[in-house]
Amino acid sequence: MILLLLSSVLILSVLAGWGKVIESFLGTLSGEVAGSILTGILGISMAWTALSFFVPINIYVEIPFVLTGVFFFFQKKIYKEINQFSKKDTFLISGISLITLFCSSFHPYILDHFGYYVPSIKWITEYGLVKGISNLDLTLGQMSVWHIFQAGFSGFSDPFLRINAILLIVYTLYIFKNKTWIQLCFIPVLLLFSQSPSPDLPVIVLSLILLNEILQKNRDINLLFAFAVFVFSIKPTMIWLPLLVFLYSVFMVKPNYKNWILGTGILILFFIKNIWTFGYPVFPVSAGDFGFSWKPNPEVLKISSQYAVQKTYDMQYTYEEIQNFSSVEAIKNWFTLQGIKSKINIFFIVSLIFFSVFAFVKKKKIISLICISILVKSAFVLAFSAQYRFFIDVFFVIFFILLIHLNKRNALIFFSVASIFVIGILSFPDFIRQYIPSFRPGNFMAGVKKEQMYKPSAYHYNKFETFRIGNLKFNVSKDYPFNFDTPVLAISVGYIIDDVNAGIFPQYIDPKNIKKGFIWKKLTSEEKKEAENVINNIKNTDK
Length: 543
Prior knowledge:
Blueprint: H1 2-26, H2 33-51, H3 59-75, H4 79-82, H5 87-104, H6 111-126, H7 145-152, H8 163-178, H9 187-190, H10 200-215, H11 221-234, H12 240-252, H13 261-277, H14 298-312, H15 319-323, H16 327-335, H17 340-362, H18 365-384, H19 388-402, H20 408-427, H21 430-435, E1 464-469, E2 472-477, H22 493-501, E3 504-508, E4 518-522, H23 525-542
Antiparallel strand pairs: 1-2, 3-4
């Protein structure tokens, strides 16, 4: 926790310094120093995304950016802006920040941390964006902009990968500066995402900030649209946010084509990134086929699509069973899943209906536009893969609109009670395992450790085996399904089996240069024997 505090001070200074420079060109959000930091996040993320096509985003990129950001921080005397809060608010901000740092110092427990977040960051720091990496491990085809941003600070500024905790501190500054007290109530829930560089936290935080900017009648569409597309680039399920800014511009602000230039540039960069790593413009959708040789094998995409359908029903039905559902059965079974998921699904639909009625009764244009935007997003999610993690942001939006006038005192009371509850869950996870056994992430919480008061807790495994199929030499985690602590080049066991079942396997485009990327190739009879030996070896080891 102490090291995390020092890391936070450094990174916040860097972001504020860069943000102050960038906002002189792009404009700024409200919140003064918080707005500068958010602009710094946008600018640095885009710069590092562009750089990652050519070089690894490692310590050699980190050092000049950090030194320059600190220089701007002092040169522009940004530290004086921090002292503009009252003594009482300074005390409260400090307390909330310490709670944030404490919660973020627990062991990571979200499974994607081990199978997606950390492997992505390792690839970005060692090689940058690699062409066709989705052929190696389909999950890596996402390569979220947020993980590029985290990778840039993972050398010495934040080797603990706790960038989400730093964003929550910025969020706290924004809340107090703008006196938007309802948002204090969201922080305890978001603390559950602070131990990992999960893209869910930044998209929720940034969308709520942009929503507040719109409600406060910020008319800088150029900046709002750029931020909205940035959020979309972090996680495409946030399609409602660029749509909202577009509708807000057309119906409430005089539209101007110049307002779309910056956001369109970010969107184009996002598409290029996805095409480079995945072969298609938007992961994991195989739409927009330009015939690139490094796109994934159709059979692998089919398996992924079927898996997404099963995840809609929390893996409680086989794909064949789901395909045989009638329309009535599909809806009924989604609402009656075993465990907590069914309750979340019901609450989601009820919330949408209630908010739609609320928007109709209120007859306020901006609320109607917000309602239309989240209904469009919800329709996409329900049609594609109706998993709660894809629509969790909708709850935050609805509660924000409904309780926007909550006063400071009640917000602080709720924050305090809810934070105690969250800290209790993280410290003593047996409680949630006993009373909500269907909440699977609870099984991976490790509880409080005294060492985390100095240094954030982290898992170390580093057990792996090395194999070769064709021209590809790769590592596989031993007795564990994820490769968070396995040296690159690593492949998850599940994808090895899927590839072999499809009769294909990833290969180097150029065995002498990993950066040139990967393609899939049909297995020869000799390579099939190699693959079968690898799978048998893995299965025997697991036993």
